[in-house]
From TrEMBL:
The keyword Metal-binding applies. Homodimer. One of its GO terms (biological process) is pyrimidine nucleoside metabolic process. Pfam families: Glycos_trans_3N (PF02885), Glycos_transf_3 (PF00591), PYNP_C (PF07831). Catalyzes phosphorolysis of the pyrimidine nucleosides uridine, thymidine and 2'-deoxyuridine with the formation of the corresponding pyrimidine base and ribose-1-phosphate. The gene is deoA. This is Pyrimidine-nucleoside phosphorylase. It comes from Ureibacillus manganicus DSM 26584.
Length: 434
């Protein structure tokens, strides 16, 4: 087989065979095929697209390019959730404990974040003593015992995706639906998921800015999952403004705890129930989405979800008393209110820029080497659609440094107040079940 023939075939808009797809994925991973040929193929795929069959084959070729996590010793259907990423997205922590309380095992591999705030692991490390270094046996045992565990990235998962993504990044071929969809799905499958629920964000703060692009990506991923034997569902949710109120690591842990008590911000609470319903259904613990939702609301009201979260923290070395007393989480020295300069309605809170403001405070990493201050961040006091009077607090800044003029300027520039009444954006734009 020759790489140049594969490139020409795709350039001419033809369908590649599974053998051809495996040839280039394996050859590139091993270093036998040079960057320039794979770049040309990525560009051909960008223009000519891939069929559903090719997308499924590409996904599995990437899964098989490296290690796979073996979760077969965990009883039940292992369901994983993936979010395409947003600002202040605290969902994972509350959602995991809620679905675990419904009997769906949550065996999660998570990363540190490079973005506005830390990733799930950074957030959890805001809890004194918490660690994610579990052996495989400990991980499996903990999920079987209490239905929930989170470990850090381990093993050499999907090396093909790592190389291809780095190449796409510098060749203008990232925004291709078949390439993005196979990249995301390969990582979830290699991490051991039997079933997958996807939260595809849309809007200013999202990777996909328009509803059309987000929908195309969601459909592509759901198709791939179902074609390779992993039950997959998706939703499309709003990311034109940050999710919930808190943006920052310890602040988001507190918000997750509030949500587990049923006292979270309305949007975050709703997102947890919507995604959770899909997870409980694909996890085989309910037949309908409505039945699953009733179960989730039940475990929140009864306190069972919160109880699992406490056991999970304790099992991984953390101090579970933070759940009853969130003031034990790291606290910033200063709380500074940013007041509205006009009266009217909040018409925009641009997620991306508000996220950057939180990062400037030290809540996120500007580069891989940056360290995070777990205590700092922003707490929104208003959301889009809310009425506001001059002097009302828009945002409270939690900071350890009083040199925050740039942060304040950024907040004023990206929180827009209009004279006319504005409707709050719809949170759940679409639910995709097949
Ligand atoms: N995120 C991924 O994991 N892969 C892509 O290709 C794009 C975004
Ligand atoms: Ca939040």
């Amino acid at each position: 087989m020759r790489m140049v023939d594969i490139i020409e075939k795709k350039r001419n808009g033809e369908e590649l065979t599974n053998e051809e797809i495996r040839f280039f994925v394996n050859g590139y991973t091993k270093g036998d095929i040079p960057d320039y040929q794979v770049s040309a193929l990525m560009m051909a795929i960008y223009f000519k697209d891939m069929t559903e069959r090719e997308r499924a084959d590409l996904t599995m070729a990437m899964v098989e390019s490296g290690d796979k996590i073996d979760l077969s010793q965990i009883e039940g259907v292992k369901v994983d959730k993936h979010s395409t990423g947003g600002v202040g997205d605290t969902t994972t922590l509350s959602l995991a404990a809620m679905v675990a309380a419904c009997g769906v095992p949550v065996a999660k591999m998570s990363g540190r974040g490079l973005g506005h705030t830390g990733g799930t692991i950074d957030k959890l490390e805001a809890i004194e003593g918490f660690h994610v270094e579990l052996s495989n046996d400990q991980f499996v045992k903990q999920v079987n015992d209490i239905k929930m565990a989170v470990i850090g990235q381990s093993g050499n998962l999907t090396p093909a995706d790592k190389k291809l993504y780095a190449l796409r990044d510098v060749t203008g071929t990232v925004p291709s639906i078949p390439l993005i969809a196979s990249s995301i799905m390969s990582k979830k499958i290699a991490a051991g998921a039997d079933a997958i629920v996807l939260d595809v964000k849309t809007g200013d703060g999202a990777f996909m800015k328009t509803i059309e692009e987000s929908e195309a990506l969601a459909h592509a991923m759901v198709k791939i999952g179902n074609n390779v034997g992993r039950k997959t569902m998706a939703i499309i949710s709003d990311m034109s403004q940050p999710l919930g109120y808190a943006i920052g690591n310890a602040l988001e842990v507190k918000e997750a705890i509030d949500t587990l008590k049923g006292e979270g911000p309305e949007d975050l609470q709703e997102l947890c129930y919507t995604l959770g319903s899909q997870m409980v259904v694909v996890g085989g613990k309910a037949v309908t989405i409505e039945e699953a939702r009733t179960m989730l609301e039940g475990v929140v009201q009864s306190g069972e979800a919160l109880e699992i979260f406490k056991k999970f923290i304790a099992a991984q070395g953390g101090d579970p008393s933070v759940v009853d007393d969130p003031s034990l989480l790291p606290q910033a020295k200063y709380k500074i209110d940013v007041a509205a300069k006009e009266t009217g309605y909040i018409s925009k809170m641009e997620a991306d820029d508000i996220g950057i403001a939180a990062m400037l405070l030290g809540a996120g990493r500007a580069t891989k080497e940056s360290t995070i201050d777990l205590s700092v961040g922003l707490v929104l006091q208003k959301k889009v659609g809310d009425a506001v009077a001059i002097g009302d607090t828009l945002v409270t800044i939690h900071t350890n440094d009083l040199d925050i003029e740039k942060v304040i300027q950024k907040l004023y520039a990206h929180i827009i107040i209009s004279a006319d009444k504005v409707e709050a954006p719809e949170l759940i734009k679409k639910v995709i079940t097949e």
